[in-house]
Every structure is written in structure tokens, then in C-alpha cells.
Amino acid sequence: QLQASGGGLVQTGGSLRLSCTGSETIFRFVAMNWYRHAPGKQRELVAGIPSGGSPNYADSVQGRFTISVNNAKNTVYLQMNSLKPEDTAVYYCAGIGRTGTTYWGQGTQVTVSS
Fold it and tell me: Cα(4)–Cα(9) distance, rounded to whole angstroms?
């Protein structure tokens, strides 16, 4: 089970750090991803980090968001800087299992005011 936290209301240009903690080791996942879903839009893969690999980002957040993992804490983070109103969405973390199954955490709301 994955538990996401850290969302909230922030002004344009502000920062938030989202956390996603697994009840079991996240070593079992081949990748950890953050997605977001804004009203009226399709779900978007925001950032991902494969096990032992390099992080990757959507063009819309490149240079502003950073994904990182603390394996000792079974936690993946999404540091979000220079937030914009268009970043407003529900953010979800997900672990990709070795068979390709996606294990979803619950969402956390991020609202950026203009």
C-alpha cells in the first residue's frame, strides 16, 4: 500500500514536497512514478524513476520538479518548485511491479493560486 501526502494550497511561484511511503519495501517495484489528474484533462505522467536508473520528467515540469527516492524510508518524493496554476491537480504516486502491474497510492490535492 502506498500513502501519499504533502499536498496543499500554495501561491504561484511557491514550492511543495509530496511524499509517497510504502507499507512494504518499495524495492519490489521496478519503477516509481508520480502522476497528476486535473479536472477536464487526462491523467499525466509527471515524473518517474526506474530502479537503479535515471529520473525522467514531463516537459511541462522539467527543471521545476525533482523526483527522488529514500529506500531506507520506503519513500519517494516529488519536490515541486516554481509552481504554476496549471500544476493544480490531484497527484498520485504509483509503483510499477515486475509484471507491469501498477500499484496506485491515493491522491493528494495540489492547488496553486494565481
Answer: 16
Angle among Cα 7, 8, 14 to the nearest 5 degrees reads 100
Report the alpha-carbon distance of residue 78 to residue 61 in Å, rounded. 11
- DSSP code string of 24-87: S-GGG-SEEEEEEE-TTS--EEEEEEETTS--EE-TTTTTTEEEEEEGGGTEEEEEE-S--GGG
User: Are residues 7 and 80 in contact, defined by beta-carbon separation less than 8 angstroms?
Assistant: no
How far is 21 from 108, CA to CA, in rounded Å? 13
pLDDT averaged per 10 residues, the chain (length 114): 94 98 83 96 97 95 96 94 98 94 94 96
pLDDT at 18: 98
- 78 has which bridge partners? 18, 67
As a whole number of angstroms, the distance between CA 107 and CA 90 comes to 6
The grid cell for 43 is 491523467
